[in-house]
Amino acid sequence: MNYQVSVIVPVYKVEKYIEKCARSLFEQTLSSIEFIFVDDCSPDNSIAILKSVLNEYPSRISDTRIVRHEYNRGLAAARNTGRSIAQGEYLISCDSDDWVDQNMYELMYQKAQQTKSEIVICDWEEVYISKTLRQFINPPVNNIECVVALLSGKMHGSVVNKLIKKTLYTEHNIMCKEGMDFCEDFYVTYRLFYFARTIAYINLPLYYYNKSNLNSYTSTKLSESSQKGLILLLNDIRKFFNEQQDGHIEIKKAILPVG
Known about the structure:
alpha/beta, 9-stranded mixed sheet, 36% helix
């Protein structure tokens, strides 16, 4: 079955948060949507809670898949697994400790159709224990300017607020690098934007980024493996753009010089 949108949700140690996440997904106003939960061998009750919530939404059961890795492979591998089996025209990720606005995916898909865009971006809200901060993305319209914004740190590289046409992944063989679980999104987003011909923006905070989960990748200190991953990412960026023939000066200026 083909869907308009596929939502990929990696699951690992989120038993405190997954109920809220799952309900926000199953209550989406978009009907042509599939949900792919990738169980990365979560050792807690996350999957049991997910299945219990799903049973409360019988109309969503046939459009929901829960796949399990044979062993813990990390966040990047979970994203790859979900994307490899997704049947949607457009793909988007949702972290299982976050939640989304009820009409997020309908609004984003409608925008994609209206503008014939390969990438649609929305704002988000960072939710802390005592406050909420709206993040205005305001991305450039031009794809090369978006790449520069990503490389210079002016735009976040996350895939959770970006609806991306599946063919961008498949035609250019773009996937996360397994084992790189810090900035794993950035590894794919700069490539996706480089090849995207049309980009659209919704000036609404449709995604809720949970900043109270102290066990998430973005909340923990940089480990040695994370630091090695960042070096690998930097080298990959340099290699990728050195291989491109268009030689955009803006991009080369945004990349740190080779030491």
